[in-house]
Amino acid sequence: METTPAATPAPVTAAAPASRKQRDLLRFGLVLLGLVLLNFIGQQFFFRLDLTEDKRYSMSPATEQLLEQMPEPVTVTVYLAGDFPPAFRRLSQATRETLDEMQVHAGTKLRYVFVDPSAATSEADRQKEYQRLIQKGLNPTNLGANENGKRVEKIIFPWATVTVGSREENVLLLRGNQAAPPDVRLNQSIEGLEYELASAIRRLEPGQRKLIGIVEGHGEPDNAQLYDLIATLQRDHNVYRIDLNKVTEQNMKSLSAVIVAKPERAYTEPEKYKLDKFITEGGRALFFVDAMRVNLDSANRGGMLSFPLDLNLTDLLFTYGARVNGDLILDINSGLIPLVTGMTGNKPNVEPMPWQFYPIVNGYSPHPIVRNLDAVYLKFVSTIDTVKAKGIRKTPLMYTSRYTRVLPAPVPINLNDARLPPDPKLYTSGPKPVGYLLEGQFRSLFANRAKPGTTQFVPVQSPQAKPSKIMLVSDGDLVRNDVDPKTGRPVPLGFDRLATTRFANRELVQNAVDYLLDETGLISVRGKEITLRPLDKVKVNSEKSKWQLLNLGAPLALLAGFGLVRAWLRKRNYASFASE
């Protein structure tokens, strides 16, 4: 019986370890080659991804176009460097991130630098630098915030200067509503960074300035009382006073917008026809009109009755879709008037008293014109109703407070009423709109009628008809600045000398003109919204130690666990290999 010898096992060679080493090296080389190739492709085809929910790191198409087409280099100097508390550091970091994103589209034409105004080594040099910035119009801000339950205040210069050649523009970075909590106001400022910087760059660029006409001839405020309005608009446009009796229809076509600013006498039919023709053919218009006639001198001497003011514009505005009512609004959230409350020796003692006929408006719609706007100061304002107008979109812009009272004409007005505290039971009318934006193709008031003073027939729609935009505010004082009686110099628009507070009247008008005349859509950037997600401070303080321990211990535990698992896998693999 034959037996076959048992098969001898094959000798173990070093081929397996060598092939595994080669395979690892090959994998490493392929990964390295892939990374190099991916980097090369990324340099050839640039792109950025904004994965945030509110797109906070994305530029609007209008801003991108502005930056990509800049004809001259731009330098931005930001005065927000230094040691700030976290709340303020967030504004500084957001400004840097916004400028970084702008550089992506502007390239080498945009340069920015951060400067610390407090970096001087001595107190004298620091105060000298402060005075230099103040003389440039960069006023400091003492802004407070709560950190770890403590109140922190810091003097900062929340400004940037944008320079193009020899031209320079100051940009206030800390805006928002002053009545809002500090964290909310900072967030509102961050939302507006892109618009503030981009609009400053646009203003400094050479370009064709548009023409704006301020209507006169109806008892409107003089140039001194409209000084701030004219000066503000002249930064970007050419502004003229126009008399509708003297300007021709052809000359009206050269205007981009007209402003009706607090008239006190009625418009004639020919004047109204020119205004109507201008608007229905695409011209923009801003109406700041009073519905009631008020004489403060009479109110101070014992009282008066306020009756409706006939400007002969009611039918025109009614055709466009709005009506300013013959009433007056009283609001508990109001400004001040000076009243004699007694005598000190032989001199009267004058004190500021709340006056409900001077509402401080702080309620806004989310429209870009008024978004994140500070409070606006009005005087003797009336309610506005909208009426049916085909094809016209009507957007309410601002409202009085919930503690509002509406008095229909005739309205008794007596300054001595300011001595009496308001009865909240009477202020139950709720928020009332006092400003509207009207947009669309407006129908002419004179359609199917003869042109005033002629037998010329006006068609239903002019061949030159174009869509237009109108802003209507039921207060003419919104655009009128006071004049200092001692010096005769105009004070800033919206400045209340009694409360030493400047309201946002100027910014409202500027935003409205930008929206009405902006063809690039840059004003829409003001609608950008960044959601504020604050932490529960009470819960943070109570669970602070637990989360600190978790943040410190969890990474170490994960690292130790990964090491143990890797060691166990290596031991198992080599044990199975040795058993073979």
TrEMBL record:
<keyword id="KW-0812">Transmembrane</keyword>
<keyword id="KW-0472">Membrane</keyword>
<feature type="domain" description="ABC-type uncharacterised transport system">
    <location>
        <begin position="209"/>
        <end position="512"/>
    </location>
</feature>
<dbReference type="InterPro" id="IPR019196">
    <property type="entry name" value="ABC_transp_unknown"/>
</dbReference>
<feature type="transmembrane region" description="Helical">
    <location>
        <begin position="549"/>
        <end position="569"/>
    </location>
</feature>
<dbReference type="InterPro" id="IPR055396">
    <property type="entry name" value="DUF7088"/>
</dbReference>
<feature type="domain" description="DUF7088">
    <location>
        <begin position="53"/>
        <end position="163"/>
    </location>
</feature>
<dbReference type="InterPro" id="IPR019863">
    <property type="entry name" value="Motility-assoc_ABC-rel_GldG"/>
</dbReference>
<protein>
    <submittedName>
        <fullName>Gliding motility-associated ABC transporter substrate-binding protein GldG</fullName>
    </submittedName>
</protein>
<dbReference type="Pfam" id="PF09822">
    <property type="entry name" value="ABC_transp_aux"/>
</dbReference>
<dbReference type="Pfam" id="PF23357">
    <property type="entry name" value="DUF7088"/>
</dbReference>
<feature type="transmembrane region" description="Helical">
    <location>
        <begin position="25"/>
        <end position="47"/>
    </location>
</feature>
<keyword id="KW-1133">Transmembrane helix</keyword>
